[in-house]
Amino acid sequence: MKLKKVLALALAATMTLSLVACGGGNADTNTDTPAADTSTDAPADNANDSTDAPAANADDSADAAAPAEGVPSYSQVNVGTDYTDLTATIKWLHHKTDRAEDGTIDAMIADFNKVYPNITVEPEAITDYHEDSLLRLSSGDWGDIMFIPAVDKSELATYFQPLDTLDNMAKEINFADAWQFDGISYGVPYMANAQGVVYNKAVFEAAGVTELPKTPDEFIAALQAIKDNTDAIPLYTNYAAGWTMGAWDAYIGVVSNGDDTYMNQKFAHAADPFKDNGDGTGAYALYKILFDAVANGLIEDDYTTTDWEGCKGMINRGEIGTMVLGSWAFAQMVEAGDHGDDIGYMPFPMSVNGTQYALAGGDFNFAINVNSSDENKTAAMVFIKWMTEESGWCYNEGGYTVDKNGKNPDMYAAFDGCTVLADQPALAGEETMLNDINAESELSFNAGGNTKVQRIVEAAATGSETFDDIMADWTAAWNDAQEELGIEVK
Amino acid sequence: MATKPRKRSFGQWATSRDGQKVFVMVAFMTVPLLLLFVFTYLPFAEMFGFSFYNMKYVGARKFVGFKNYIRVFQRDDCFGALKLSLYYMVGSVVQLALSLYLATVLSFKVKGSGIFKGFMFFPFLINGIAIGFIFKFFYTRGFVFDTVLQWCGFQLDNLPYWLRDKGVNNISLVGTSVWRYFGQNMVLFIGAIMSVDGELYEAAMLDGANRFQQFKYIILPSIKTIITLNVILSITGSLSAFEPPYVITSGANGTGTYFVIMHEIAHTQQKVGLASAMAVVLLMIIFAATILQKLFFKYVFKSADDEDLNATAKRDKKLAKMAARKAGR
């Protein structure tokens, strides 16, 4: 009896207390959600960082400068003739789960084994490559070949076999400098992407545009011709999706000024990056294209309700003239309907001193485990070079050619006359500078700064601001951020 | 010799009923309080701490004192966004009036009231993200809404672009939130109205009161608590509106509410300190708004307090005191 009473009392007390507690909790949930976000994210990110930490084998980096004894350098291997009798079993860690499932990878390895019957390749596809590859890398248990994950360049020699000197490599492949350190190249991209404009050839033809526009003025004229002569939307902005507006940032560097060091080395230091050069170059002219197109009514009628999935079919059916997107989008537009042949890809319509530039960059890079045996390293070297030169993978994926002597897919036909460059990496000690100034100025170029480009569309459509006002505003934000961060202005 | 009261040792106390009571209470309290502390107050304290730093999610932190708070008040976008809350507040008033009306009608004998309740409550059951997508197409030029209006005789050329024209796009967004929540408010009101004694209506009818008078003198006073609660929740909710602008327009084109701006600053720009400061400022604003409303309702329902025994007792005491003071003079 007594026990029952105590129990009942205690129960009642706890229930009241927990009710009070719950009440208090609920009252706060409205406001402190961001807190929950920050407190859970921060430690998790820190944990990721620690996986980058250097591992053992620092002594290997001493002789890393020269290719190790017994292992040929990339340029020394002649694919198809050398090492055909080599026997080895190599493991390859990759992220292309889709290509593993549809059999592309197995088919390529089968082709490889026709020439090199004794080299067994064991591919392993992992889904969450960005995370898992770093873990596997730090544990050392990943086989012989992998795609280089996000490691510091100074640590490349700790993990990976030097493939060749940068000079030799640059003669063999494009984009050789993506994973180089101190003039030694550690990676070969399996494919590359180029930045341009997706367009519909049939619409251009119907509009009477026979030559692809090369300057902003010609581009606007072409859009006007599409508006006058066809029913298609000349330029589809994809305003509502947001990130599709941020895609315009990709053209600030090489494309708008022909300087491959601009984006990562000069942009953050620029005193007046958004000034009017007056000759159709630079960031000013780039965003002016968008502003003019909107102001002249050359975009979709109701830009706030654009639909990303829908636009693929629309350009395929010839209801859209052009869209400013990277080359990765090309294949999706082709596959979105029955008129895939009409889809074309052209360099961005800006010329610097009469030359059109295109920005291209390598995708994931093959690299070889520095701790593998010499036979495995040699076999891996042969496999990588065969993949680059003979497999046709890059071509089949619609990528810009990695092999210097390789053939580009037809979609890049329009790129023949232009200079294709990749952005140079940031200078030592300034690797985070662009990120920092992007965040501080809140303009976030190439980093999710969609609202600033959307603002151009709104201003042009409603007349709420002039283009020069926006550019002046950006310049002020940029200069304030430089001052705040103590970045030297050059 | 007087006997001293027997002092119990700790051991005795612990095994006694009083001691057990305390132990059990402490033991049961520990778990919920620990959960509350770890998952609510600790993160909040952390965020409060963040608001004094210039920091990203990763990397070094720099203590900047009140600079983030000063920035919140200096930036146009933060407080400009709060002006949008006015749209949502007006919307919530419309929403409450509508749901109160429907609740009253449906709580009397109406044919098919169950079906109507179901239909009107249904939107609340749909996921907020899905509602966003539904309304994106609903408002697209020449799609659902425009088509329906054209059936009613409107010309497409005379209709605004629901999401593009800055004059109407916030009203369009508020419309979606009214559509979503009025059913829920209505169900709450119906629940409260059900608890009113049915005999009161009969008595009122005998006295010749019509429906409106019944509503005004019977229903409204009986459910004032739930009305107060709903108003407070709606106003707080409209200060922190997030889903409709985030999903339908991504906060573009002048529809970015305070929460959307805060999300952008915290996650795109990674200015975690500034965003935390914004969160703290919003919390203060919500506190202020809630207290103001409480005071307001206290004033509005003053006459109703008369029926409260406590209030009467208090007033009598006050009167007695005054009388005493007067007498003393």
Per-chain topology:
The complex is a heterodimer of chains A (490) and B (329).
Chain A: H1 2-51, E1 88-94, H2 97-101, H3 104-115, E2 119-125, H4 129-139, E3 145-147, H5 156-159, E4 164-165, H6 166-172, E5 180-181, E6 184-185, E7 188-189, E8 192-194, E9 196-200, H7 201-206, H8 216-229, E10 233-235, H9 243-246, H10 254-257, H11 262-266, H12 282-295, H13 308-316, E11 320-323, H14 328-335, E12 343-347, E13 351-352, E14 355-362, E15 365-368, H15 374-389, H16 393-396, E16 419-421, H17 433-441, H18 450-462, H19 467-485
Chain B: H1 10-15, H2 17-50, E1 53-54, E2 62-63, H3 67-74, H4 76-107, H5 113-125, H6 128-139, H7 144-151, H8 169-194, H9 198-206, H10 211-222, H11 224-239, H12 243-249, H13 258-268, H14 272-300, H15 302-305, H16 309-328
Helix pairs in contact in B: 3-14, 4-8, 4-11, 5-8, 6-12, 11-14, 13-14
From the structure above, extract its key features.
heterodimer, A: 490 residues, alpha/beta, D-Maltodextrin-Binding Protein, domain 2, 2 domains, 19 helices, 13% strand, B: 329 residues, mainly alpha, MetI-like fold, two-stranded antiparallel ribbon, 2 strands, 75% helix, 1% strand
**In terms of structural class, how would the helical and strand content of chain B be classed?**
mainly alpha
The assigned structural class of chain A equals alpha/beta
Q: What is the mean predicted local confidence, pLDDT of chain B? A: 86
- Whole-number total of structural domains of chain B: 1
Overall form of chain A: globular
H/E element sequence of chain B = HHEEHHHHHHHHHHHHHH
Q: Provide the CATH topology of chain B.
A: MetI-like fold
Mean pLDDT of chain A: 83
Tell me the span between the first and last alpha carbons of chain B: 53 Å
Radius of gyration of chain A: 27 Å
The biggest chain-chain interface is:
A-B, 50 and 57 residues
Class of the largest domain in chain A, according to the CATH hierarchy? Answer: Alpha Beta
Number of strands of chain B: 2
Strand percentage of chain A lies at 5-15%
